[in-house]
Amino acid sequence: MKRIATIVALIALPLFGFADESTPNEAPKEAPEAKTWVTEHSARVGGKNIDYTVTAGTMLMKDKEDKPIALFGYTAYVAKGGNRNERPIMFAYNGGPGSASIWLHMGVLGPQRAIVTDAGWSENGPYKRVNNEFSIIDEVDLVMIDPVGTGFSKPVGEGKGEDFWGVDQDIKSVSEFIVQYLTENKRWASPKYILGESYGGIRSGGVAYYLLNNHMVALNGVILVSPFMEFATGFAGMGIDLPHVMFLPTFASTANYHGALKEKHADLPAFMAEVADFALNVYAPALLKGNKLAADERREVIARLSEYTGLSEDYWDRANLRIDEGRFNQELSRETGIVIGRVDSRFSGNMINRLGESMNYDPMTTSIGPGYLAAFMDYYQNDLNVSDVGNYTVFGNVFLAWDWSHAQPDLQGFKLPMPNTAIDLEHTMKQNPSMRVLVQQGYYDLATPHLATEYFVDHLNISEALRSNIEIAYYEAGHMMYIHEPSLKKYKDDLARFIRAGR
Question: Half-sphere exposure of residue 4, counting CA atoms within 13 Å on the CB side?
């Protein structure tokens, strides 16, 4: 778990944290109170003017005994006019676990967009934001959610961190927030969607199932953006062969992008299909044979691995045919002192330790993170008039405290230590056959590689009729594909078309 925590630290630099409020002889605390700021706005989105109301702040959550347990932070965009029952509502969040929703909020979904440099270093100010013509608020009312431990969300009253910081705890709390929002805002009749990025995939699979089976909320659709769905396929280097197979095509796309291959492949989808075929039909069987792999077969596999990744045959041989993304990103351009990005492998930066065996930081995060945060804070304070932003938490330090066990719906309550909510999604699709799924995935994503996404989709045990409810959209960008402007436009077109098809 130490290595996994290190990986998360590379993409989850704590920028803000909660202060320790405990003091000796502390006076009795006042009852927690939700705060909201409501403003009116108009924006040009999707070729038309949208008038809308924004509510930013927190919602007080209570337990079954009506005792406060959490303040849940959110930002809601509701269009004016029209039939509220007919207008879709979408609940969206990022992942982590422990990430606030500013990335989706200021990157693609909200009406304001942070300006950053794609695949390069952004300027250090003045930071800029613009009207986001690619926002989804022309199609849906949007509620951006910050799970407990992120944003303004925190345990209060009877609530404790462990009540929220775990796979099943998180699924329950986010689901309960959605239900309470629907009730307080009279949106039960509206078409309902959830959208999650990265770890938001694990959350979404569970939330879709929890909502249906605990609250009789049937979703119209689930949108999975660069989804992390199965723990076992997401982390290479843990003694499990499967993740190494899943990462290989993205190693190849990355090496191709950075000119590390002998031949430049212009048709990226075709190249990815070629490498995936090798990964599944040659590389995977070779790994499964272990020490029984014949010497000549081993040499052939090593030669192909070198050909597709740009790393030397000697390196692959010494690594016993298995490397993780941290080692790959450090090794690919070691001679020039350049480290490659993980969240978006098109990014690169100066290597901290040229003798190191794994990357020390992610160039993408340090490049775009300050611009995203500055744009969000400026927007919240100056446009939404939120007066208290000092304790906004971008990345909550909850990963090491996270309870990774999950009670899959097919195991009668037994908890597995390595979660897989693709099973939850599968059960939900069988029970709610009208629910549709859109998967949006980048080719340069070394946080949640595209072959792992295809693997989970291909292994859903559902009928062909239900399988037709799933659509996968690919982008020539990374984890946050909307940083890349051509992908940003395609992202909006794909998402809008998906929403309209459900009407």
Answer: 16
